[in-house]
Design brief:
By secondary structure, the protein is an alpha+beta fold. The chain has eight helices and twelve strands. Bound molecules: glycine (GLY).
């Protein structure tokens, strides 16, 4: 670990989604968020960039299997995992997103490769081709089907049954925001989308401004919730704008919730400002998150985590 990084100068927050998390899954969601937070924090303490940290943290959440991202993703109407992800660098405003990607293990890393390319968004079959071409981990789509999600999908009637997931209040999309020792912000969001979604449906998560946003002039944000309603509210950017207008991250997150009321949207958001303040807010029954604000040093600092009701 690099000794040149002041541990009080860095900050990171992650989330595992805002919805009606079954109480029996609280502990897994809390642990998954804490592990992802630690992973991202290690990257920052090693002198890595905020962009590296959010990618590492979201990869950990995708690999965990507890969340609606990566190998824990909900299945679409055909019983397939189809992934959306986005990542944004607050220093350069470079972005990368993929949508409706099939047979991809870590959507956030493919999004990172897109950010590093001349492109901004790659979708569908092209996302997998791009993943292969850029050395990302691809697989048989069947390998991405988690037995828990297959059982849920079957219990809901499979593709032909018109699953009614209203009681689930959408999904547990994951995300991360980070501030590195150079003072740069970054954000990333990744999801399997809504359960039983139509083939090719894309929610807010990969859309810059809706599912994520990062700008060193304002804040880094990652959202979760009802994509179809978050998209028109351009929620991630709207909340970052509150920070640019002078509100600290915790206040901006809380104020951001009132924006959801206009469309009766349900969701949650994590917000990180350049001072390293973290805001977390949600209007669903629970939200899974973990946060390490700036200013926290020492060998065993407190980690604030969720889910909270
Ligand atoms: N917020 C994730 C989705 O709507 O797909």
């Amino acid at each position: 670990m690099s000794s040149s990084v002041d541990p009080t100068s860095i900050a990171i927050a992650v989330h595992g989604g805002a919805f009606a998390i079954p109480p029996g899954e609280y502990e897994a969601h809390r642990l998954g968020c804490r592990k992802a937070l630690e992973r991202g924090r290690e990257v920052l303490l090693d002198g890595g960039s905020a962009l590296d940290a959010v990618e590492a943290a979201v990869r950990a959440l995708e690999d965990d299997g507890s969340f609606d991202a990566g190998r824990g993703s909900f299945l679409d109407e055909t019983g397939t995992v189809s992934l959306d992800a986005g990542i944004m660098d607050g220093a350069t405003l470079k972005t990368g997103s993929i949508a409706a990607g099939i047979g991809i293990r870590n959507a956030v890393t493919v999004a990172r490769r897109v950010l590093e390319s001349p492109h901004a968004v790659i979708v569908g079959e092209g996302a997998r081709l791009f993943a292969e071409r850029t050395g990302c981990d691809v697989c048989d789509p069947a390998e991405m089907v988690h037995p828990r999600e297959l059982a849920r999908w079957q219990a809901a009637g499979g593709g032909g049954g018109g699953p009614n997931w209203a009681s689930q209040l959408f999904g547990d999309t994951v995300g991360a925001v980070a501030l590195d020792a150079q003072g740069n912000l970054a954000a990333a969001t990744s999801t399997g989308g809504s359960p039983g979604k139509p083939r090719g449906r894309v929610g807010d998560s990969p859309f810059v401004g809706a599912g994520l946003f990062a700008d060193n002039r304002s804040a880094a944000t990652s959202t979760t919730g009802h994509g179809e309603r978050i998209i028109p509210l351009v929620w991630a950017k709207a909340v970052a704008d509150l920070v640019e207008r002078g509100h600290a991250a915790p206040q901006a997150a809380t104020m951001g919730l009132t924006m959801l009321d206009r469309l009766d949207a349900k969701g949650g958001i994590i917000v990180l400002d350049r001072q390293g303040n973290v805001g977390v807010a949600w209007n669903t029954p629970a939200m899974a998150f973990a946060a390490w604000p700036a200013g926290v040093g020492g060998a065993r600092p407190e980690i604030k985590d969720g889910p909270r009701a």
